Amino acid sequence: MLRPKEACQRLGISYATLREYVKKGYIKPVILQSGKWRFREEDVERLMGIIRKRKVILYARVSSSTQKDELVNQVKYLEEQVKEYDLVITDIGSGLNMKRKGFLKLLRMILNNEVSRVVVAYPDRLVRFGFEILEETCKAHGCEIVVLNQEDKEEELVEDLVSILVSFSGKLYGMRSHKYEKVKKCAEELKN
Predict the structure, then answer these.
(1) Which of 137, 153, 156 is CA-nearest to residue 145?
(2) Element (H, E) at 144
(3) Backbone phi, psi, residue 153, to 5°
(4) Catalytic residue selected from 34, 63, 65, 163
(5) Could you tell me the superkingdom of the organism this chain comes from (predicted)?
(6) What are the residue boundaries of the structural domains of the chain, listed by start?
(7) CA nearest 124: which of 165, 99, 94, 166?
(8) Longest CA–CA separation in the chain, Å
(9) How far apart are CA 11 and CA 5, in angstroms?
(10) DSSP H helix total and E strand total for the chain
C-alpha cells in the first residue's frame, strides 16, 4: 500500500491532482480506520500504463516422502484439469506445518499480488486448519483459490491427528520423557 505522497511521486502529479483522480474514479483509495488514504500499487501502476500479468499456480502436497507417487499423480491431475498455468509448486510435509518451503513461497507471491489463481486438488492440500483465513487473505490480494474436489482424505487426517497428539505430548511431558514415548507408541499403533 502506498501513501498519497508516494502515489503522487510515482505518478508525477500533485496531491490536488490525485484528489481529482479519486473524485473522477480513475483510482480508488483504500480508506484506513484512521480515515487516511492508501493506494494499491497495482492501481497506481495501472494508471501509469504498467500491467503485470498475474500467475496461475498449481499447488500439490503430500504428508510424507513415502507418498511421492501420490504427489506425481496429484500434479498430473492438476495439469489435466487446468490447461493454462504458469507454475507448479509442490510440498512434502504435514498440512499442519505452516513452514513448508513451497507453501511459504506461494504465500509470499500471494501477498506480493503476483498470483491471480491457486488451484488445488483438495482444500487440505494448502492447510489442514484455517483454510477460510487463507481464502480471505487471497481475496484481499485479488487471488482466487480453486478447489477441484471437496472431500477430505481420511488417511492423511489420521496422520495429522497422530502428529498433533505426539507434538502436544512432547510439549506436555518433555521430548525425552517415558510418558512421551508411550503416547508416541500408542499414536503409531492407532495410525496402523
Answers:
(1) 137
(2) strand 144-147
(3) -90, 120
(4) 63
(5) Archaea
(6) 4-48, 55-147, 154-190
(7) 94
(8) 71
(9) 10
(10) 8, 6
Q: State the Cα–Cα distance between residues 16 and 31, nearest whole angstrom.
A: 17
Distance of CA 19 to the CA centre of its chain: 34
Say how far apart CA 80 and CA 89 lie, in whole Å.
16
pLDDT tens, position by position, 58-104:
999 888 888 889 889 989 999 988 888 889 999 888 777 778 898 89
- At 151, list the grid cell: 472431500
Topology of the domain comprising 154-190: Helix Hairpins (1.10.287)
What lies within 8 Å, CB to CB, of 91 at 6+ separation is: 59, 60, 61, 62, 100, 101, 102, 103
Instruction: Say how far residue 84 (Cα) sits from the centre of its chain.
Output: 20
Measured between alpha carbons, how far is 66 from 155 in angstroms, rounded to an integer?
13
Q: Which CATH class is domain 55-147?
A: alpha beta
Residue 167: CB partners within 8 Å, gap ≥ 6? none
Give pTM, 2 decimals: 0.60
Looking from the CA of 191 toward its CB, the CA atoms found within 13 Å total 17
